[in-house]
Fold these 4 entries.
Entry 1:
Amino acid sequence: MTETVVSAKDLSLTFETNDGPVHALSEVNLDVEQGDFVSFIGPSGCGKTTFLRVIADLEKPTGGTISVNGMSPEDARLARAYGYVFQAASLLPWRTIEKNIAVPLEIMGYTKADQQARIERVLNLVDLSNFGKKYPWQLSGGMQQRASIARALAFDADLLLMDEPFGALDEIVRDHLNEQLLQLWDTTNKTICFVTHSIPEAVYLSTKIVVMSPRPGRVTDVIDSTLPKERPLDIRETPEFLAIAARVRDGLRAGHSYEG
Amino acid sequence: MKASSGKTIPVLTVIAIIVAIWYACVVWMNAPFEYDRAERAKTEPPGFSQLISKTMAQERPVLPAPHQVFTEIYKTTVLKKITSKRSLVYHAWITLSATLLGFIIGTALGVALAVGIVHNRAMDKSVMPWVITSQTIPILAIAPMIIVVLNAAGISGLLPKALISTYLSFFPVVVGMVKGLRSPDQAQLDLMHTYSASTAQSFWKLRWPSSMPYLFTSLKIAVAISLVGAIVGEMPTGAVAGLGARLLAGSYYGQTIQIWSALFMAAALAAVLVMIVGFAHSYVLRRMGEKPEGVAA
């Protein structure tokens, strides 16, 4: 039996701007189950990041309802229900990698010994065990992003929200990190919501792909992946993979969002 | 060391040029006095070589020669007891103590105001315009008033002068720290929000460390301007001690050599103070793990 982690009903969010209202999200209905890897894909302005920010209580919806772990997003945030990974690693330059990972732990009041144990565990998970004492500038972009994932995993949040975490990295590093992320998801049994605008990335990673389109931001298609849980990188050449990718592409095209 | 050896020659060249121009000006500006003297004494006007040696040894020259100034500085620092009223070190210390006290109060006030402005919308709207207005009032106008009012209130000595330093030095600190405390980017602030960090936690873990480069840049300006404040505080108020008093006394009695040596002392003091803040700056940033090339992250 699976539990629903995120449940959105008729969720809307309208930003009032000087140029009139912007409908960032319009009547979004979506359930994310425990253990899902859900990708949100769509062109800029389709509301995929906004949806993630609503889950994280960084934006307030203007209509509809949303629950996270059966609570309001604010209560979920106060209960430390999720870890958030941004596109930029956003590590504090004056702290070592270890100390960066310690930031949420210090804020949440873990004991020193517990902090140390957790730091070691998550550094292992992201394959950075020997880099704890380094400063962020001594690490490559990919390593920095892995450190920021480790930071989001350090406390006991079952939900991981990732906003284009590999968007600024080159494709070789990205492939590698995608593989690692799948392993991580497998070993930790977390629920992951992942924003991207890469079709192969979305298909490769996800158990569920949410295709969105802009103006107003809405969900045009939800695709349940038929790919097995075990996914070597070359699964991307199989007909099954290509069929899902084609459906995603059709969904994006149906959103007729390519007027640019 | 490598960087400094690359700078030595250009710096020395500039100093040599300045000294050369200075000596030329000494002859040119002090010559009329020598011609006058010769005319009054009804003797021959001095020849060129005589003119040079005479213009550089006047007692009250229009422009004293560099060696006269440095001899005076040597006499009034090394050869005088520090406790003597004629010791330049004694006067420099009087000014320095007011400078440092004013600098410390100004920094504390500036940081406190910046923290308030960043965290409180009402303060953001109301305080900043007054902070800026405060600096449009000429310090020369307000200095005597501060001294007189505080004297009437029974406060005299170090504090009134220090407050004039404070008045000048809090400004760069407020402006720099407001900018520094607001320097974390949105993602970093959002991250703190997702941790449900309190305002105090965000402040100490994010805003305060982010503001350090801004703080030290402001402190360099603040410490130099504090010295100016202390000297200005000594001038219009009939102070008997301090570099400002030396400058004023020197100008009353036409003691140009004394004026120039006080001036050099003030400049040296300012240079040392700014250097100390500079060392503190690089020390703190190095402790914070800054990239060695000094590239801001």
Entry 2:
Amino acid sequence: MSSAHNHVTTTVSFDEALTRYDPVIGLEVHVELGTASKMFCACSTEFGAPPNTQVCPVCLALPGAMPVINAKAVESIIRMGLALHCSIATWCRMARKNYFYPDMPKNFQISQYDEPICTDGWLDVLVPNEDGSTELVRVEIERVHLEEDTGKLTHAGGATGRIHGADYSLVDYNRAGIPLVEIVTKPITGTAALAPAVAKAYVAELRDIMRDLGVSDVKMEEGSLRCDANLSLNIPGDAWGTRTETKNVNSLRSVERAVRSEIERQAAVLDKGGVIRQETRHFHEDTGVTTPGRSKEEAEDYRYFPEPDLVPIAPDPAWVEKLRASIPQQPSLRRAGLATAWGISAFDMESLVNAGVLALVEAAVADGVAPDTARKWWAGELLRQANDRGVPPQELAVTGADILRVDELIATGALNDQLARQVFDGVLLGEGSVDDVVAARGLGVVTDETELLAAIDQALADQPEVAEKIRAGKIAAAGAIVGGVMKATRGRADASRVRELILSRCEVSG
Amino acid sequence: MNSTPKGPVNPDMAADLIRQSARVLAEAIKSGEVSAREVTQAHLDRIGAVDERVHAFLHVDTDAALAHADRVDVKRAAGEQLGDLAGVPLALKDILAMKGVPTTCGSKILQGWLPPYDSTIVERLRAADIIILGKTNMDEFAMGSSTEYSAYGPSHNPWDLNRIPGGSGGGSAAAVAAFEAPLAIGTDTGGSIRQPAALTGTVGVKPTYGSVSRYGLVALASSLDQAGPCARTVLDAAYLHSVIAGHDPHDSTSINAAVPDVVAAAMKADVRGLRIGLVKQLSGAGYQPGVLQRFNEAVDVLAQLGAEIVEVDCPHFDEAMSAYYLILPSECSSNLARFDGMRYGLRVQDGGDAGVETVMADTREMGFGPEVKRRIMLGTYALSSGYYDAYYGQAQKIRTLIIEDFTRAFGQVDVLVSPTTPTTAFPLGEKVDDPLAMYLNDIATIPVNLAGNCALSLPIGLSPADGLPVGLQVMAPTMADDRLYLVGAALESALFDRWGHLLIEEAPAL
Amino acid sequence: MSGITRAEVAHLAHLARLRLAEEEIDHFAGQLDVILQSVASVSQIATQDITPTSHPLPLVNVTRADVVVPGLSHAEALAAAPAVEDGRFRVPRILDEE
């Protein structure tokens, strides 16, 4: 297909584009719910099973099979809607969206049309400015509705493994029928150069909310959170332009890049006096650009109508209120509060979030550990231990009490940082409590100076030329002897005291 | 009333197993007078003898039927409790999924498909130890009123082999009328149980929508379809009704409430003090004089039995057919989308290099017959943007008006009656390419499907014009199915007393 | 309602994935027209205040608990497939040549 790569030859830089055009963005995010079973049947939703092993008459659309709604999916979407400040419908129906595609076994998708379960919400997102400050942007939510996922197509033959040029395709229906929630924003205007960052921050915030609610594992790399980005440009003051829809942007970084690249592309087309076609585009992670997919000029006619095999959903308002009371505070706002309480910067907070240790730090603080200490250990040594072991940090069997005890021992001089590492290693290997490990491994700091002096004498004797230099006044050379002593005591010495003792032994003054 | 607990039976036929009622057979099996195998074999022999001419069956499951009959005999010998219909043979409409047994829906597109699961009805029949002889012929995907739209050739009316047996469930009705089975299961979307019953001199019941599970019933129009019993006596139908009805968690539209005691009602067979409504809109123009004559006589019988006869106005019934022929095709166009040659059934792939869209379109073109295509096109039109409100939306409102007509009528009377069909059985080929004329067969049966309530058709004599059977329809409110049997059995009993036999005994020998 | 055109029939056939032969399009255009005219009366009934009925039952909230029940075996799932490869349903290429 030659038209697939009609790259625009002239380019316009992002900054330049924004001097002439205002972007309007709209985001459609699909979240696969983390229910155990599918939306309309009892098949497992577990990721990674061999193809077509998690299917049944319902999700294979065998003749005669009928759907039954998963109660947990309804509860999950209502909680999502509440977290996004939406109104919850008191009565709504599922609808059939009719179109033929081999990844959809019924050739209609059970979705929602004009009666979505959640409507008219909003989400405040913190968007970083270039100068490091942050700006609060309110994104309005149009609707949040329930539907089902499609099967997974693998394209075979042809050169690229892509749909274009493939000889045939293979279908795995394990994913078909997994509950899917679609969250659609209202058009987001007035963001100018922040548009890509707003898009990214919004999706990141949604991801964090879903994770906090426990409704989805929101793994973009496994496709459990997918984003479509709509974008149009208009000359300031003019009506909105024609929009394109960039499909399946599958990482947070790509959300930002796709919006950015589409702004540049559309600006280049408009600069040349061209027109933007209303079309679906695909974002390519490798090149960072979007290419056209199907034109939407011949608009699909989905022939929606109420799903006659299902009855309406009418959530009891009292139940909805009960769910509302259980919605946790919005992650970014809660984090901002924590950062203030702990006296740390937004940047430091973000690194805790990115490292996946925020909840662990919070738990340690709740156990009485000083925030700085909790951060120091979780973002440092403990995170390294987790990485070394190839497990997520929350799987480390270290309690707030352990951190508290290590911190006490350091404060009294009984441990130093290096010994503390060995203590945690022992605790993680199941050697007992902090005190057990200190005792069993003999990890207390050596306070007996006779023992230290013996080690110093031995080190000086082992390295006579270094000893000579020190005696000649080259104090910096003492480091090598300190190293020898630390090695001999297996780190159990206080390095600064050792250094003092070396200098006095060599009769030079520091 | 001198109705016996076994219902009306012909005493002269005691030696002839195939001419007995299901209840008589069940009692004879229970008492050891005859074995289930003998009963099953007798019916298989009958099928072997006459079905070449009747063509009621698409598939006869000889081995499995005999094996099940043997198990029933073993159970009896072991002194186990047997169900009310244990060992009685039954013919199953080929629209119900049965594990490992061909299920074609009368269509080429499902030729060779073996369902990997049982419909709920089949599960219930098996659990009741009813012997399933095989699958019966039908208009393709239940669209039609004559079985002439079956891809496997029409069934023939046992009363006159040159005439249609009605449809879509003509195979089930013909099997019962030709003594190939004492019981059958049909499905009724607009009259597909009742109209064939009327034209073959048998009894057919469309239960309340939601009272018999649709799980495993290949959907034509999900909001209208309902499976029900076919038999030669009202009491037999009641027994079968009580086996198949009841809540099913696999069908979201299944009513979770106790099924009315239809067997007790059929045994009571008493209309004294009952108010019976004659629907003004369901007689007169379009109804054959011979049909009306028998109908009026039957109403007189009901009056003589002590019922109060009242004329009732249901003004919106005049629009029922129009609403029906918009709602049904709409739902059907979506329900039949899954037949695309991708996962099961026919695939037409000329030359092997066509794309998926072409293969789907070729498969559906080759696999579907003209009536199915007509209705898919009609439904696609009625749902498409720009026409939805004028057609589908408006038809749904008419549906509301028809429900209100029924509600009003049932405020005045206990049941409604009408001729089941406007005419007796017509010759094969007469209406096959005149869809509108074909649709008019269902004019009296459609309102009940739209409103979801229940109705029964029973034979009331032969038309003086052509000597062919005429049926009377009893309609009752939602979940008042027992009233159908109360009235049906009373009328049947009175007519039996008058004739000295069941009407079906007057059918010519085959 | 005005008559249904040949082009409309062709468009409907495409939406419904039916490859109608030329003469079938003509035949259906005529028949659909007759049927649509006969059902057109529904659009003439004044029903502004009427709630549409999509379903004959007044049921709501029919759901199932989120519990996994094993479905079909892999062999059963693929048994009826016209073509299978690598444990998957093999289907013709998705994009037709343009």
Entry 3:
Amino acid sequence: MFKGTSASAGIGIGKAVNVEEAELKIKREAITDPEAEKARFQGAVKQAMEETGILAQDLATKVGEKEAEILNGHLLLLSDPMLTGEIENSITGENVNSEYAVEKVCNTYADMFASMGDELMQQRATDMHDIKTRVQKILMGVSSVDISALPEGSVIVARDLTPSMTAGIDPNKVVGIVTELGGKTSHSAILARALEIPAVVAIEGFLSQVSDGDDVILDGSQGVVIINPEDSLKAEYAEKREAFLKEKKELEQYIGKPTVTKDGTAIELVANIGKPEDVEKVLHYDGEGIGLFRTEFLFMDRTSMPTEDEQFEAYRKVAVAMNGKPVIIRTLDIGGDKEIPYMGLEKDENPFLGYRAIRFCLDRKEDVYKPQLRALLRASAFGNIRIMVPMVTCLEEFREAKALVEELKKELDEKGIAYKKDIQVGIMVETAAASLMADVFAKEVDFFSIGTNDLTQYTMSVDRGNDKVSYLYSPLNPAVLRSIRHVIECGRKEGIMVGMCGEAASDPMIIPLLLAFGLNEFSMSASAILNARKLITGYSTKELQAVAEKAMSYSTVKEVEDYMREFISHS
Amino acid sequence: MVSAKVVIKNPTGLHLRPAGILCKEAMNFNSSVSFKFKNTTANAKSVLSVLGACVKSGDEITFVCEGADEEEALATMVKAVEEGLGE
């Protein structure tokens, strides 16, 4: 059994086909007719451009414009007069064969890009290798492995998939993809998900362990690959595969459907994300926006503060990808539970009650908070960004943050830099203090988002990570439910949006209650969205009023849980 | 010969897509179109040359055009950059 990174969910059972190509052997040869050789090179470039153009079109219709962009980039490079000019000069000036001239010149550029040490430039180095190989293959009459002609039930095995390879994949024939390289966001992974082919990537040395025709099982959800399994195991996975497909099919019916209850209440069903790359998954599961974009990732695992531009770029990316749909971005929520030396954050005796989130940010306006808020404002020119302040306990904190936003807006006005003038600024309701004062907050903030994980922890005074006391941690505890209901009621009274971005928002036991209370927005991990839509569209908020009333009449968490379990088993 | 300074506004600098658009604009002219940045001079008609200059967001470059249609070329290039090169 091999363990890799799960890149695309689902179970694939089939036969291994190695699509890795033998390396081209490029030799330097002297030529006698440089003009004819130059013409041969020009013909190959022309053909390469035609092929690439067709592949790009194919990929654009099959997967999407964005994926085809890499190939359109190849077209730009192939048509570059400097590149072709240098190769031609090398052919005529040194009397060498085209294959060698292409190798030499393309490698020079690839090395130049690789040495620039920036991620986008690394991609250009890969591009140079890709176009080099394409032109050389045409020159040498070597045909590529024709992936589109693979037999049904093939599991593609490769070091990594190039854009040119992936364009030919037929999802009716390819049942799985296993690669040695790559990660969750590599080209192969993105493509596998777009085509809904189960995939496991990053299994080192896999090619040397598998032969063509081997039976292969891969579990793309778990990142597991098995070669030549026993029959019993094969049967087990065949069953798993059926169950996965059945559930998937059932939930897919909800893609593109509006999230409206039976009696016509429209709900915003949005997603929680931690990195800009997560957006792809949100769009795949038809999320209607982003309800929580955690910004901590920008600050972790590094030795210095991210620059304003770096932050701007991350926020802008998400805003653009969501194309006008709401994107709620939470400002830095960091504290003494994580030691970040460059920020001067030390281990805190009691980190969740200590120096963290908005408390820390307001203390570090110049070097931490202002750059983040400025980056958020600048990015808001590119989409529907909303700013969310975490861990607020008193009104002064919100006012101070809001005043900073206004100050920065003026600054941007003076410099003529664009931003969304009516950008919303709201709070995450996750402390008992904010919940109790929700009626007061509701008059000043633009929206609430209830963070149930922390709200439960702070309301019940319980560390969910501590096994000895974690039984106390339940958002269905009457104290927590009262708190949630109170916040929703206060928000509704002032006509502001009330959302929820904790795990409770996707919990089937809690969704009926939240609907009855009048929650407007449910935010959850992308993969939970379709199931939540299925549940929400099956309820009528009017009919749920009686259920909520009954649930709220109980005094203990056990009574509430029993009642809700009973209710959902009958609905 | 005419020249003008302009600041690159594209968030990721002159990367493949904006560079491609820059080149396409430059190719419309008979004049030579290049830009100076730091110690290098890049040929604005070559994507590779533009990429190689490694121009980041906020950097200032100086376009230099020379030829029969140099005035028009310069005006077009400056306008294209100011309009964000398709981004």
Entry 4:
Amino acid sequence: MPDLPPPPDGSPLRVTVDLNRCQAYAQCCYAAPEHFVLHGREALFYDPAPSASDRLSIERARVSCPVQAIRVEDPERQGR
Amino acid sequence: MKNINAEGHAVVVGASLAGLRGAEALRRAGFAGRLTLIGDEPDRPYDRPPLSKAVLTGDIAPEATTLPNLHALDAEWRLGVAAIGLDREAREVRLADGATLSYDRLLIATGSRARPWSNPTEAGLAGVHTLRGRGDAAALRRALAAGPKRVLIIGAGFIGCEVAASCRALECAVTLIDPGPAPLARILGQPVGEIVAALHRALGVDLRSRTKVARLIGNETGQVVRANLDDGSEVETDLVVVALGAVRNTEWLSGSGLDAGPGGVVCDEAGYALDTEGRPDGAIAAAGDVARFPHPLYDGRPVSLEHWGHAVAQGEHAGRLLAGAATGAAYAEMPAFWSSQGGVTIKSVGLTEGADAMVFAQGSPKEGRFVVVYGAKGRCIAALSFDSGRWLPAYAELIAAHAPFPPIRVGVDLHGLAVLQPGFPEEWTSS
């Protein structure tokens, strides 16, 4: 089996948050409120597969994280 | 002699978090040869923590959990086919579809699987679930969405507790059964276990500690309808979740000459797999749940850790090691995990095993926010937070430094810390 085919156009971004690192500063919740939300005081729930059209707000969330806990794979810009 | 990094073949067995991060690390470290990832599941690597939380509540779809790929892999994927054997002399991995793959470097990252219910007939009843993979989570989500009359969860470890909280978020009736004195008491000790018990009771979970399920009873169509408990009582249930921990996937290594068994694949400090004579195989490393290694922070005691962060860190370490780019330092990542249950976040650094004392170092259970520090022989060995995660890095430093226990607190307004017994319910078995 060769390498998996590249994701089709319009496929989602892939997001993980290292929740060991996360300290619930909630900057991502301001940057991308549709995709990051705190439950209680510090339980972060996030959308691991946001639409590629939300690239800008997800990127804002990633760079605004004070502990740099957010990792994103963008099918169009792999290798972050 | 062959330049492995240019012309070699690196094979990663296990296509989950540790295997993926290990493969990426190989590439990052300059490995430019052929790279193959083998996974027994049909899916690309996916993230497991959401499976007991947001996937069960329906907030995210099971297939949304696919992990980001953080470095170009240029890999061949053999998905949906398990590795079933290893021949180290021929340097070949045998696959379930009859194929063999030769390797120059091998990363073992086969992880673990859910421990099944002990009685196979009862385990086979409709409505009896375990939770480990994405398919398990999808099936359990469907069952929960159908509106079960009562969910019975067997085992109040992290998975059992998280599933119980997710069920309550869906307003399903839940009974949580555990033989220990309190949920999570084996890991966190009894005083913290009692706090977890109170949390679950407040969520509306019917918690039965010091209780075991004796039998699961099915009806004439093979659907589970009831559990008989060892205290003579019964629970009517149409959905059972067996959450009795994990079994490491090492069976495929039998006959390979590696020191591998229920305790994991035994590795040396560097991360190389050891053979049964205790000699490292310089072509093979192991990472994640399946690896058993001497932890430098804990006097070289062999441990195997089922933590998300450990799968990442040890996967990356093993990738660098196999690419010849390791610094030579032993793998010494500080153990850490998190769990969220009913909106409360529980986080931990270090290992509580062997603790002989504990203190509530900050906050209090009454406030619902606190930090507990565990000590052994007068040194800090672990810390745990309830909704106070920002303090943990400071305690991680104390643990890494083997700082005195109880942690020294200076301040005129601070009274001394009461040193408590952690009260682990049973003798620690080597884990």
